[in-house]
Amino acid sequence: MTETPPAATVTRNLTLDSREEATVLFGPRDAYLRGIRDALGVRIVARGDTVQLEGSEEQIGQSERVFAQLRTIFRKNTRLTGDDVKQVLDIVKNGELRNGALVVGGGEGSKYLRPRTDGQARYVQALKAHDIVLAVGPAGTGKTYLAVAWAVSLLRSGAVKKIVLVRPAVEAGERLGFLPGDLISKINPYLRPLFDSLNDILEVELVKRYMESDIIEILPLAYMRGRTLNSAAIILDEGQNATVSQMKMFLTRMGHNSKIIITGDMTQVDLPRTIRSGLQDAVNRLKNIEGICVMHLDEADIVRNPLVAKIVMAYDDDAKPKRS
Asked: Residues 131-151: what's their mean pLDDT?
């Protein structure tokens, strides 16, 4: 009987941004490091802001994925918890990319939409675990698509009875009143991305039937005022273009047995400079409230054409401070 030779040992160094980042990532008395070591079977030696990883190629790859996700969480939230570490380890070690599918459709027509990055897997877990999720990240990271897919899966499973898809109708150089056609014609361009996501996930005829029976609504944010929505999945897309008062109005539409998902990209705010983004305000106000999750995606989660990630990074360079 031929024995499988042991995997070759690989050593790789990871340099962190600062001692502060290292202290947070290592955890109280290095508890997070021990958790990563025990879960992945990798040897970890920490010296200052450098982490040395030693193990098989697979173990090193998994460890690097874990540290990449934990660093993203820390940079966006300025903190890290034991639950964050456990969640990331579950995703990387237990194959959440393969197993964390969203089931949409029904019967033979069912689709299984799987997260394609570790960040998207964390996003799907957040959708399943929280009643309100704020998803912030650049274009192409699947924020809206996965939110719509989650809403459809809730509808088809009977967990909710209605889907409401909302967008702020922010004028980009044109006023709605000056556009030709009736109201539906005027707002259609602002709502088209939501139609596109729905029609990609469900059959067009089914979407049409759902909309005719008001099971699915797609409408401008202003039309939410005065409503209370029970047993509904409610999605606000392009949330960065809602004002603070509009965001408060939207969040307070939530009724019993409902879910809210807000998506947005803080690099694409179309509001006047003097008006604060309601999404940025909500992230700051709500991030520590139990039952609400603020989920950050980044360039590593972009799943469109590979050029999109490069384009996003090129524009991000303008926002970074220049060293003299």
From this structure: 93
Q: What's the pLDDT tens digit per position in 22-56?
A: 899 999 989 999 999 999 999 999 888 889 999 99
Provide the strand spans (E) within the chain.
10-15, 43-47, 50-55, 102-104, 111-113, 132-136, 162-167, 216-220, 232-236, 259-264, 292-296
What is the C-alpha separation between 16 and 165, in angstroms, rounded?
40
Please spell the DSSP secondary structure of 48-75, one letter per residue.
TTEEEEEE-HHHHHHHHHHHHHHHHHHH
Determine which helix (DSSP H) or strand (DSSP E) holds 268, and give its type and residue range: none
Average pLDDT in the chain: 84
3-state secondary structure at position 165: strand
Place of tokens 């009987």: 1
Instruction: Give the pLDDT band (50/70/90) at residue 172.
Output: very low
What's the CA gap between 126 and 111, in Å, rounded? 20
State the helix-helix crossing angle for 183-201 and 143-157, rounded to 10 degrees. 80
Q: Which residues of 168-182 are buried (b: 16+ CB within 10 A; e: fewer)?
A: bbbeeeeeeeeeeee
Q: Which residues of 20-42 are buried (b: 16+ CB within 10 A; e: fewer)?
A: ebbebbbbeeeebbebbbebbeb
pLDDT in tens, 259-297: 999 999 999 998 999 999 999 999 999 988 999 999 999
> 292 φ, ψ to 5°?
-115, 135
At 53, phi and psi to the nearest 5? -110, 135
Q: Which of 160, 125, 132, 147 is nearest to 291 (CA)?
A: 132
What's phi and psi for 305, nearest 5 deg? Answer: -50, 135
* Residue that the structure tokens 């967008």 belong to: 167
pLDDT tens figures, 215-224: 999 888 888 9
pLDDT of residue 95: 66
Q: Distance between CA 156 and CA 143 in Å, rounded? A: 20
Query: CB under 8 Å, gap of 24 or more: what pairs does 98-102 form?
Result: 100/124, 100/125, 102/146, 102/149, 102/150, 102/153
> What distance in Å separates the CA atoms of residue 267 and residue 104, rounded to the nearest whole number?
31
